[in-house]
Amino acid sequence: MNTEPKPIYGDGNPETHPLTWRLNKQEHVRSADDYEALEGYAGFKKALGMKPSEVLDVIKAATVKGRGGAGFPAGIKWSLMAPNDGGPRYLICNADEMEPGTFKDRLLMEQLPHQLIEGMLIAGYTLEATHGYIFIRGEYIEAAGYLNEALEQVRAKGYLGENILGTGWNFEMHVHTGAGRYICGEETALINSLEGRRANPRTKPPFPQVAGAWGRPTIVNNVETYNNLPAIMLRGPEWYINLSAGKSKDPGTKIYGASGKVKFPGLWELPFGTTAREVIEDHAGGMRDGLTLKAWLPGGASTDFLAAEHIDLPMDAETIMKAGSRLGTCLLMVVDETQCMVSATRNLEEFFARESCGFCTPCRDGLPWAVKALKALETGQGKMEDIEHLSELTKKLWIGKTFCAHAPGAMEPLMGALKYFRHEFEAKVKTHAPALDVEQA
Amino acid sequence: MMILTDKKPRVNVEGILTAEEIHDIEHHIDHYPYPRAASLDALKGVQRRNGWVDDAQMNAIAQLLSISVADLEGVATFYNRIYRQPVGRHVILLCDSIACFLMGSETLAEAFQRELGIQYGQTTADGRFTLLPICCLGNCDKGPTLMIDEDTHGLVDVSSVKQLLEKYV
User: Could you give the ipTM of this predicted complex?
Assistant: First the structure.
C-alpha cells in the first residue's frame, strides 16, 4: 500500500495516460497556447483533413464507450444520428455531474478545459453539427469560467465560427449553466432543461439522435467521453484498444476514483479492468487505520452495493454486471465496517426521493415509501414486513414500470443492500416496536 | 364571439429590471434558437440582485422570453437553485449525498443547525444565512463538502463551523 497520495496521471506518459498526462507537465492547462504546445488540437486538425465519415469510422473502430454511466458505444450512438438535411444539428456535452460520489468531470473541466473542447470539435465535425452546448451544473462556477475563456481563445484561433480552418464547416459553441436537479443528467431531461423547460425526461423513441433539442437531431455525450477523442484521432484505434489489452474488453483508460474513509481519496487514470482492490489499496492507500472495508458502490448512487468479497473483480462493465451491479461512473465509494447499512441505504433513497422529477407516479410516490420503511427500520420501529415491502418495491419500481431510469437507479443500491446485508436490516427489527404501515404512510 | 384570455397587460420591463439585467438576458437569448432557453440564465441573473426572484421580476422576465408567467413559474419552481421567496444574505448548501454522508455530513448538518438556530429550509432571524441541503457537489475526495454562496469548502469539520460562518457577514 502506498504511503502518500498518487497523482492522477501516473508516470505522465501520453501513450498510457492519454486523458491526464499533460497535468504532469503543468499543474493545469487552461490556455489554448499551452494546450497546443502539448499536442493540443493536433487530433482535431488531423480529423479536419479527413472526411466526416472517415472520422466516424475511426471512432467506431476504437469502440469507445460512453463515460457517463451507461457505457453505450459512442460510435453507434453517432451513427444513429439522422442524416444532414441542411438544418441545425446539435452536439451537447453532459457536464451536469451530479451522480453522488462522482468528481471526475470537475477535474477534467477545471484543469484541462481545452481537451473537452477539442473532443467536441472532433465530434461536431464528424456529425456535421451546427451548434454545441456544454450543459454544466450551476455549482461548477470555476469550470464554467475556464470553459468560457477557452471558447474565446479557440474562437480567436478560428476553430469556432464560420468556415473553420477553410473546411467550409460552421460551428458555434456555448456554455449553458444549470440551476440544480439531479434529473438534468438524464439525456432527454437535459434537453428539456436546455430548452428552458422543466427537466422532465421525454419519451423514447424518438431518440435525441433523430429528434432532440428543439426537435432536431442531437447527440449528447459525457465530458469524459469527449476527452477520449483527441488521443484516438492522434494515435489511432488500435493503440486505444491496446490500452486495456489483457485486462478488459472495454477499450481505453478510465478515470477511476475512490471516496469514503480511505487514506487518500482521489482520482487516477487507469486502464479498464483494473480491480477495485488495486484502486482502493494501491492508489487510495487502503482503508484508514483501524477500519475495514464492508461494502462499496462501484460508480455512483445508482449502482448496487457490492461486498468485500468482490474487490478482486476487474472493474469493467461486463464483470461488474455479472456480480449484480453496474460499473456506473467507476468512482467507487467505500463503506467501512462501522457504518450501518440501513442508514446508508436510507440516505441514498432520501436522495432519490427528493430528486424525483415528480412526473410519473411510481417514482414520485414509490420512493418516499422506501424512505419511510427505511427510516422505520433505522429507528427500531420497523417490522419484518417493512423489509418485504422494500423487496417488493425493487420490483415495482424496476425498469419498464417507470417513465425513466431514475427510480430503477434508486432501486439498485437497495437491492444490493438487501442482497448482501439483509442481516443488518433484520437485526434492526424489534418485535416490540410500534409498527409502521408503509401502505398507509 | 368574445374570446377570453388570461393574458395580463404588458409590464414595463425597464421599470422592473436594470439595463444590465435586460442586456444580460438578451445576450443569453442570442445563444439559442428560441428565447425561452434563456429562462434559467435570466432567472439566475436577476436573482443575483436580491438573492431571490419576486413576482414583478417574474412578469418582466416572462415578457422578455415571450412565454407566459405561469410557464416561467413552472420552470422557476422546478429547479432548487432558483428561489421564489426571500433568502438570507448568504445561502449555505450542505451536501447530503452518500459520499459526504459516509464522511459524517449528518453530524455536520446538526452542528450548522445548532450554531445557526435554524433547520434546513429556514433563514436566520437576522437575515444573514439560509441553510439548504444539496445533492452531491462533486468534491467527494474532500467530504464533507459545502458551498456558501459561490465558494466551495471541503473537509469541513464540526469544530470549524463557527469560524467558517464568521467569514460571511
Answer: 0.94
